[in-house]
């Protein structure tokens, strides 16, 4: 039996990676019994994010069809799908490791997408090949570290090209290229705090589970709306907590420039490379124009020299003010063809510039960013055997 819960800011709170101080987390407290979750003083405007992101129903159906068909029928050539064509977001791009016209015809037929909205691109590796390479990185990380090559994260970036976060000399990069392939993109400029226990369950701000900016319509400041029902302790699970509360699937989005309103999540969908999305964070409010980049990214598991944690997916926004401390746990969503899909929950980011919102209250120590990592909602729901209310 699946447990039926609503999806919204009252459902899942992901841990924060922006913790500048030594913190006591919910894990360390190991609380017994329900922990009340109260609303905070988030007196900001709440717009209805009803605008559609511009992807047609036929392209979305094609994405879902190919993500089923490719790995099942042609795993030897299938790389992935994308909507990153520069001509239009409403074009399905299918990445294959072959240019065989017969194979492409089979994929085109399976997609059901008209030729005018379909493109093929060459992928450097198959989806299976990427997964095998990720395991290889996790296995080799300790050996590489002894040689001065520090791998901090690996996965698939935009355009289905492999990317690696690494600290290494030019000679070290040459070693990685020779060993793992010339198609790898190396990211060498990033904030050290981004990779401090990315998968840790004890890296959260004290009282993070207190729900400082949780709210529901009409509840008012300080109203108790629910309690922690479940927390994730599984090392390879999703770093999140389930708040049991009455309410709808409504997401309160926040923007001082828009009128008040609520949107309702109608379905859950896994994002893909180039998928457009909006976020609604407690501090930065609603930001749209996000695009997902690549496939889930892997990070070393802190307690295992050869373990990896591959539950996070990267997003990029044109604005450096799009996400910051305190936004963790906020929803990631998009309206496609009149349906609002829940994609993910905000997890963390590499913070680099002073946030323009709320920064004075924190002595300008809050740092924002245009790149964020999120936990896929489908995985969180599977973790607790949940489904949307009808």
Describe the structure.
With 390 residues, the protein is an alpha+beta fold. Helices cover 18% and strands 31% of the residues. The protein has helices at 26-29, 57-73, 101-111, 127-145, 170-180, 377-383, and strands at residues 3-5, 12-14, 36-38, 78-82, 92-96, 118-122, 150-156, 162-167, 185-187, 224-231, 240-245, 250-251, 263-264, 267-268, 276-281, 285-300, 308-316, 331-336, 339-349, 353-354, 367-368, 371-376, 386-388. It has a six-stranded antiparallel β-barrel with strand order 15-16-17-22-19-18. The longest helix has 19 residues, at 127-145. The two termini are 15 Å apart. Mean pLDDT is 75; it is low at 1-50, 201-219 and 254-260.
Helix content: 10-25%
Low-confidence stretches: 1-50, 201-219, 254-260
Estimated structural class: alpha+beta
* Major sheet characteristics: 6 strands, antiparallel, barrel
Terminal CA distance reads 15 Å
Quaternary organization: single chain
Residue-averaged pLDDT, rounded? 75
Q: What is the ordering of alpha helices and beta strands?
A: EEHEHEEHEHEEHEEEEEEEEEEEEEEHE
- Structural Rg: 21 Å
Shape: globular
Defining key terms:
single chain, 390 residues, alpha+beta, 4-stranded antiparallel sheet, 6 helices, globular, disordered N terminus
Please render the helix and strand layout as text.
Elements: E1 3-5, E2 12-14, H1 26-29, E3 36-38, H2 57-73, E4 78-82, E5 92-96, H3 101-111, E6 118-122, H4 127-145, E7 150-156, E8 162-167, H5 170-180, E9 185-187, E10 224-231, E11 240-245, E12 250-251, E13 263-264, E14 267-268, E15 276-281, E16 285-300, E17 308-316, E18 331-336, E19 339-349, E20 353-354, E21 367-368, E22 371-376, H6 377-383, E23 386-388
Parallel strand pairs: 1-23, 5-6, 8-9, 14-19
Antiparallel strand pairs: 2-11, 3-10, 4-5, 7-8, 10-11, 12-13, 15-16, 15-18, 16-17, 17-22, 18-19, 19-22, 20-21
